[in-house]
Amino acid sequence: MDARTRLIVAVTVPPLVAAAVGLTHPHRLTLEAAEHWQMMHTVLLPVFPLLALGPWLVARRSSSVSGIVAGVLAFVYACFYTSLDVIAGITAGALKAAESEDLGVVFGLATDLGEVGVFAYMAASVVAIVAATRTIGVVRTLPGAVLVLVGAVMFWQEHVYRPWGVTAMVLLAAGWGWLALANRTERHEVTA
Questions:
Q1: Cα–Cα distance between 75 and 151 in angstroms, integer?
Q2: What is the helix (H) or strand (E) element at residue 124, kind and residue range?
Q3: Which domain holds residue 67?
Q4: From CA 171, how far away is CA 131, in angstroms rounded?
Q5: What is the pLDDT of residues 99-117, one digit of tens each?
Q6: How many domains, in total, are found in the chain?
Q7: From the CA atom positions of the chain, what is the Rg in Å?
Q8: From CA 181, how far away is CA 91, in angstroms rounded?
């Protein structure tokens, strides 16, 4: 597999896996859905941090400084969004399965931490898009940029709930895939 193919796989597979799992996401955490809720978020635990590969790999392909900035922001996303997944997904599912009704504090804390993560993801995405635009131009960047930005905002609003959170993940995969394909600059060829 060549470097370009590895790059495309790295930026598209994680959001597509999240979308596939998101198709099973219950709309509400009920006693009946608690075990599935907990298991689904456990499965997503290693997937959500991998979403950070999109902005980081696209940005570093354009410039090392952009790669570092996007990488730091992607790391912040991975840390804080993982906390949302652990708290609101795994912990809340376990508490609900134990028939605890005191989930307000858990969801409030998870939401706050998750927002830090998603805002860092959006910032990393903007850095990557600006870097790609400087390297490959507005026309070649625009379709991927629109897909990524719309997907990132939908991710913030809808997590991976059906249908819009799943759509967000598909948009992120398509947008990062577009940007990875559009950037054909030989000078910045890196192995993914």
A1: 19
A2: helix 104-136
A3: 3-188
A4: 20
A5: 887 788 888 899 999 999 9
A6: 1
A7: 17
A8: 39
The secondary structure element, H or E, covering residue 26 is none
Cα of 137 vs its chain's centroid, Å: 24
CA distances from 107 to 28, 121, 124 (A): 12, 20, 25
How large is the average pLDDT for residues 25-35?
A: 94
Which of 13, 16, 11, 8 has its CA nearest to residue 169? 16
Q: Which two tokens stand for residue 33?
A: 């859905």
Any idea which residue has 């940029």 for tokens? 145
Global pTM reads 0.90
Q: Any residues with CB less than 8 A from the CB of 104 and at least 6 apart, and which?
A: none
CA atoms within 13 A on the CB side of 29: 26
DSSP string for residues in 47-111: TGGGGGHHHHHHHHHH-HHHHHHHHHHHHHHHHHHHHHIIIIIIIHHHHHHTT----HHHHHHHH
